[in-house]
Amino acid sequence: MVTKTFIRNGLLLIGGLTLAFTTCLAGPRITRVMEVPKSADTPYDNILVIALFENFDMRMKLEKDVVNQLVERGVEAVASTSMMTTKTPVTRQVFAAMAEELSSDAVLVTRFADVNAKVKMKDMNPQTSYKVSPADLYYPTYFYNVWEVQVEEYVEPPKLELKGKLVLATQMFSVMKREVVWAIESKSKLVLAGDPGRNYTLYLDEAAAIAKHMSKDGLIAK
Length: 222
Prior knowledge:
The chain is of the alpha+beta class. It has helices at residues 56-72, 92-102, 201-216; strands at residues 5-8, 11-14, 17-19, 21-23, 29-34, 46-52, 76-79, 106-122, 127-130, 138-140, 147-149, 151-154, 159-174, 179-192. Strands 4, 5, 6, 7, 8, 13 and 14 form a 7-stranded mixed sheet that branches. Strands 1-2-3 form a 3-stranded antiparallel sheet, with no helix packed on it.
């Protein structure tokens, strides 16, 4: 049987099965792609947060976690998904209207730069149990010196093992200058995650790393 594997926006699609990723405990590694220019109108205190993923739920989760990180640092921040639905067009005009409505002084945009993962199936060891009769584990049959034993074998489905990397690109746009004033890349090692609806490690780690480096580079006051 041939199994087709696709990587799309951080989701792994294998034969119709959708799986999410989680990062290793070490967290993402940040590379600064663009330094903040001296002419930048920093720090920013009113930021529109945008995640440009195909999956709306993934956008919403990352944006929410980034907003929480910024709010904890005293910054006014709003997630774009809080002002739209799954049917709202994802266009420059829509986001520009949001920034104008919110009087944002900066826009933070995160998108996937690269997803590279290797997948393999690992056979699991079966387990066997005996059905105990009232007398013993086995009992005689109508045939001479023949005994019957009822055995049930439980075979777990093959285990899916995934390893790879995820690269996110994040840019900060100045509303007043209408230009990019800061950019980073976030690289994370991936391992297989279970339920994509319950696994928030990736979003929390990425949001914390983004906010930390925004603060470190003087984009926000704290």
